[in-house]
Amino acid sequence: MKISTKSSKHAGAILKIALPALTFFAFAAVAPAQSAGYDLFQTGSGAYVDLSSMNLGTVNLQGMPIQGSTGNTDTMMYRSAPTNNVFPVNVYALYMKSTSPVTYKGQSADVYITINNSGGSIPQSVLPQPDSLSASTGSVTMYPSTSTFDSNVTVNADVILVTAGGSPTNSSQVLGSQAGPSISLTSTGSPYSTSPPSGYPNNPSYSSGGFYPQPKHKGPHPVIPASCGNGSSDVRNGVSTAYAQRVACIAYAQ
Known about the structure:
By secondary structure, the protein is mainly beta. The chain has two domains: 1-31; 33-244. The protein contains two helices and 14 strands.
């Protein structure tokens, strides 16, 4: 039987086109689903900071919502693109306050713990960080076969002392500030999911990259995934309502 040369050439052309396409789809099938993104957390119960170096002893802390569009988020992490399932991470924003006043220089004062590493996306007038700080960095190692991860993060935050009931954004009420002591947060075998938990803020400015962690920290700062909650109404003393509430928190539909 004679085979047409024209048909053979046509079949060869199709094969040449098909092979790269098959290679592309095979690569896409094994490419990791997780990418660079943000983690939005709310501080859990039992948070504290040891400020013995400032003669303040151990200070119990609570989270402060940063902005209305991210609900009750008080801790924001940024993960760079992973290599071999390891994300480099840094603390993007942190806002905490003492649960009760302390005595500082003979005055009743509130303690604020802050980091503003947003590059101006979150104004200093909303989340102040008056002092230069060492970077707060670490890593997250992901284990897709078990949907777990290990993490290790060093946190270097600012300590701001404010007249009790005052605001850290009002310079006339700030009694002093300085870089606080470094703390280490570690977790082993913590779970993660590829879909958001119920109520998690759906904010396109802070995409998760398909990774939603639930860290079980060993350290003084326990966290849980943030939610819209009533964060849009938690406008802090001295913070512009126009900024804090300019975008309402929208939760993922479940």
